[in-house]
């Protein structure tokens, strides 16, 4: 479909931007946040942290900030060498942190290998390969083979994966850590920078604290590896106060939704990046429809991109090809209205009027629509948590709200409207069942 329209691939890919030239081109409206990440990496050895709602673009801006750090070194080796790790990591449990550590070290090793050619050209002459050679002589790699030829420098290292995605032995891990410390010392101070994403998947602040405390003296202390932590629902603030982490985490960089004046730039930059020839790409929507969808979905960029792809599929499967801007506006409005109404119809029998009143207020009220907690029951006109809780559960079962209960930190606002919920809200606005948000 997209190749037939003159694109190399889908221009609405919702995955996080990669730390490369294309990602650099596609990042829009995040100059302030990327500068903050770069400044904090250079300023101290503390863990850089970011907090913002899901789908807002935290991982993308971190990846591009790291890529810009790397470009700065390529332009002038007087800058610190920060190399973005090729993999973004996340934890949804803390049961096997040892395996997680092995996985991280393996990805760091492969990252260095992939950057070999660029670093070769700099003739940096980094030390460290001799340490790795001694490990090879002991034949301790098991499922991994690491071959080094020529001089004792990073730019002669070649890493080859055979079957496993984790490093095989503790002997190698110890030697590899020493090697990293040797590489990123002296004039080459810096690190491979890893991103630990979606900390909110650990669900409670207690579990997140346990995880980060366990990693503090293992992965977080490895010389030559730096970390950036991303989370939602104020999880970063919840874990930062623990004594074992105090002083190890930078204050969170708050990531807020992109302003509406960025949507046209986002749309045009993606169109330009993926079209095979200048001006050749056809799309059944314009930046105006992209902006409308971004507004309807409460400024969630990831969901907006995903829904744009859904719309393109719908037009293609229904043999619709609107040509001018007016036709595109009409066809898109028809699809969006149907999409919203279908979602409302699907949950109408399961959600009673009282629960819909809670939902409408959640979507409309400034202090509630991003997220709220059960402790805010008075904002809904109730006199207790127990009155609000079953209505939230009803909305959650219908897929309109999502909640993560954190019994360890009641300050965290962990209940929010889902993408489906925002479509239902739009349907209710169109039908006059709820007031339009100001």
UniProtKB/TrEMBL annotation:
Going by the entry's taxonomy, the superkingdom of the source organism is recorded as Bacteria
| Organism expressing this protein natively | Pseudoduganella buxea
Query: Protein name, please?
Result: AAA family ATPase
Supply the InterPro entries for this chain: P-loop_NTPase, WH-like_DNA-bd_sf, WH_DNA-bd_sf
């Amino acid at each position: 479909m997209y190749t037939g329209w003159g694109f190399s691939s889908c221009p609405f890919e919702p995955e996080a931007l990669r730390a490369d030239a294309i990602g650099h081109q596609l990042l829009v409206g995040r100059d302030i946040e990327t500068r903050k990440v770069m400044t904090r990496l250079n300023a101290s050895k503390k863990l850089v942290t970011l907090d913002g709602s899901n789908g807002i673009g935290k991982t993308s801006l971190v990846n591009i900030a790291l890529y810009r750090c790397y470009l700065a070194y390529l332009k002038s080796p007087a800058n610190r060498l920060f190399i973005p790790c090729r993999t973004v990591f996340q934890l949804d449990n803390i049961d096997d942190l040892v395996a997680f550590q092995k996985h991280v070290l393996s990805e760091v090793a492969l990252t260095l290998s992939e950057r070999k050619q660029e670093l070769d050209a700099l003739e940096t002459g980094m030390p460290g390969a001799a340490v790795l050679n001694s490990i090879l002589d002991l034949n301790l790699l098991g499922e991994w083979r690491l071959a080094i030829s020529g001089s004792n420098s990073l730019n002669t290292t070649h890493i080859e994966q055979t079957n496993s995605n984790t490093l095989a032995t503790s002997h190698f891990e110890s030697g590899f850590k020493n090697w990293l410390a040797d590489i990123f010392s002296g004039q080459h101070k810096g690190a491979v920078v890893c991103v630990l994403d979606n900390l909110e998947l650990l669900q409670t602040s207690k579990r997140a604290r346990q995880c980060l405390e366990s990693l503090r003296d293992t992965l977080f202390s490895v010389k030559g590896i730096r970390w950036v932590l991303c989370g939602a629902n104020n999880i970063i603030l919840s874990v930062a106060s623990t004594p074992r982490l105090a002083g190890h985490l930078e204050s969170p960089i708050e990531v807020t939704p992109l302003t509406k004046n960025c949507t046209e730039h986002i749309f045009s930059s993606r169109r330009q990046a993926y079209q095979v020839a200048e001006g050749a790409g056809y799309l059944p929507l314009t930046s105006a429809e992209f902006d409308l969808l971004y507004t309807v979905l409460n400024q969630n960029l990831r969901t907006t991109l995903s829904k744009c792809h859904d719309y393109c599929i719908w037009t293609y499967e229904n043999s619709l090809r609107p040509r001018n801007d007016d036709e595109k506006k009409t066809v898109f409005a028809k699809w969006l209205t149907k999409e919203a109404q279908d979602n409302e119809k699907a949950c109408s029998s399961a959600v009673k009027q009282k629960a819909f009143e809670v939902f409408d207020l959640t979507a409309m009220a400034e202090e509630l629509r991003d997220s709220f907690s059960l402790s805010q029951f008075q904002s809904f006109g109730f006199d207790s948590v127990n009155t609000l809780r079953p209505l939230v559960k009803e909305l959650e079962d219908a897929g309109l709200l999502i909640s993560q209960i954190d019994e360890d930190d009641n300050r965290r606002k962990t209940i929010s409207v889902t993408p489906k919920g925002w479509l239902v809200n739009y349907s209710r606005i169109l039908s006059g069942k709820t007031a339009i948000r100001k």
